[in-house]
Amino acid sequence: METYTVKDLMVPLEEYVTVPLGTTLLGAMLALEKAQENYDQGKYHHRAVLVLDRENKVVGRISQLRVLQAMETREENTELYAQLKMYQFSDAYVDKLRENDRIKCKVFAEETLKEATEKPVEDFMQKPTPDEYVDESEKLDLAMHKMVAGAHQSLLVTRDKDIVGILRMVDIFTASFHAMKSLGVA
Amino acid sequence: MFEREKIFNRIIQRVNINLRDLNFDVSPFVTGHADLRQMSRFYAFYGVTTDIPLNLQFIHSSLAGSYFLGKCQVKNAMLYKTDIRGDELKRKGSTFQFKNFSIDLRQDEFIDIVSSALVKTLVHNFSHDPESPERFFIKNTLSLDYANIHGAPADGCFLSPFATVDLTTMRNCAIGAYSYIQAGRISHLNVQPGTIWVNSPGTFNFLYQFPQDRLQHYIKQEAGGKPEGALIDFIEKRAQAFDKVFDTAITSPPIPVPETASLDRYAVVLSETTIDENVLVAQRAYLENCTMGIGANAQENCYIINSNLQGNNVMAHGAKVVETEMEKNIFVGFNSFLVGKPGCRITIGTGCIVMPHTIIDCSEPLEIPPDTLLWGLITNKQELEENSIPLEELRVVHHSIQRGNMHFEGEGGAFVEGFKHRINHILESNGAFYHQHNNNIKGHAQNNRKLSLNNIQPYLFGEMEGVYPDITIQPQG
Lengths: 186, 477
What we know:
The complex is a heterodimer of chains A (186) and B (477). Chain A has 186 residues and is α/β, with parallel strands linked by helices. Chain A folds into two domains: 6-69 and 117-181, CBS-domain (Roll), CATH 3.10.580.10; 73-106, no CATH class. Helices cover 43% and strands 16% of the residues of chain A. Chain A contains eight helices and seven strands. Chain A has helices at residues 6-9, 25-37, 64-71, 78-86, 91-104, 110-117, 140-150, 169-181, and strands spanning 11-12, 18-20, 49-52, 58-62, 133-135, 154-159, 162-168. Chain A has a four-stranded mixed β-sheet with strand order 1-7-6-5. Chain B folds into two domains: 3-226 and 451-473, Hexapeptide repeat proteins (UDP N-Acetylglucosamine Acyltransferase, domain 1, 3 Solenoid); 238-403 and 411-447, UDP N-Acetylglucosamine Acyltransferase, domain 1 (3 Solenoid). In chain B, a hairpin with a 2-residue loop joins strand 44 and strand 45. The chains are: A alpha/beta (186), B alpha/beta (477). At the A-B interface, helix 4 and helix 5 of A face strand 23 and strand 24 of B.
């Protein structure tokens, strides 16, 4: 375990689902579906899509949560909620208003679903932050610290300045589990 | 550079330093608005009466057209047509009750204005700050046209036109135009225009916010400009009547005034106006073709036009009422603007409470049932429905209620009782209940009859033009 590096566990970029900037939400979901259909033949179970720019550089990532967030069209009155908090209304009061607003907004309605399918990925993708990168030569300790500290589902693996793969939480988790099991503690 | 400019620039800098955390710059609100040449055009004046302790100190300040009553110190400040009414300040030997604290006063309270510019502002009531019971401070503060600082010590604040802060200590706050705040104490708040907030933590919390686009019709101030809108137009249309009052030596009231009522020498009274017993009409009030029933009052900057007040009606500072029938015991809050029209009159039933900063601007007749609470912007019957609630219905609210832009949380009964108690106190203070035959305590209506007024003048030439000499006015002995 101690000898493992990030490179040993990462998913190489070429094996990941990618879409170019400008792809619609539906396009990204279809790409993901296709990758999952090929799961039996492939090595990896895909839950996210990477977004590439014209130079094929990774500029964003779309997780399942991001897709759901893009679909959710309720227009939360966030400014009002902030004002109510500022004017010392209780959390319970603000939560009650928010709940009422949510009930009014239907996600699984034909019109809202259709609207969501046309959203371009750049509108809802997650842009990588500086603490989401890890070099392929680093040991798993650093990767795990970064993942936990930033609550990241995955890290972008770099070689020099290029992104060459993805290190997923599931792989770190599995490695950790095997390491503990190998201790032989009952 | 004139000395008045140095004083003013320093005040603006002090206010901006205090508001730096809010990234708030007050300069655009005074550039193009404040004309410092006006500071030498108007005399200041003060009231003298045996009922109210007098001690005035003016140091390195401009005071154009401003009025003083009671105990007040003004230092490095600029006051323009501002009323400093110290007739309700706490007295030595009295006890100020704040929650569980009984605070004994060792000296008379005084209003302490330092490094501040107040434009057409009313300062009244007493400090409700338990940390400063004997000093009602206004420091590093700028307030603009028709703002009210009512029992509200201020340090490092900006009050936009028609803003009111009531019974609240404020520090480093910017209060938007036509906002009313009564919240005990606030700090580092940037309050958007048209916010009506009445908060008694742990008991109730009331909030209404005017639709910003519609509020602009009534009051707005763009960067580098003067305040504009229907409220300003309304006042400016009647400004000449005040010029006449201030420029003329008037020796007798223009209409009969009963022995128990008072009509201030600096109020405007036009056409068919009648004043009944125990009525109080303050300076800068404007009455035109109206009846003031027993115990009704018109406080500073009130306008009552083509209207009838049946009695015991409180017209709080800056309230304006046009083409309105008011039954008895009605409270109209600060800066409210109730504008009926011929053929579209407003009728307000007994016991109604019109929240501070309410606008009723109707194009159809409106009849408001007795014992109703009103707030916000009302232009028709539908909006009246949305922006009002019967007091009995509010009394039984124990958790929360929302109507349109109004949010209320807490005990409705406490809110209603709090208002009723305060209205009663205001009527009592103003002398509405005074009766000569049962030895009742007098109020402002009776005491103000004994008020005489003196003028003071600024330097009229040189670098000090518009600045007043350092003056102390204090009776000997």
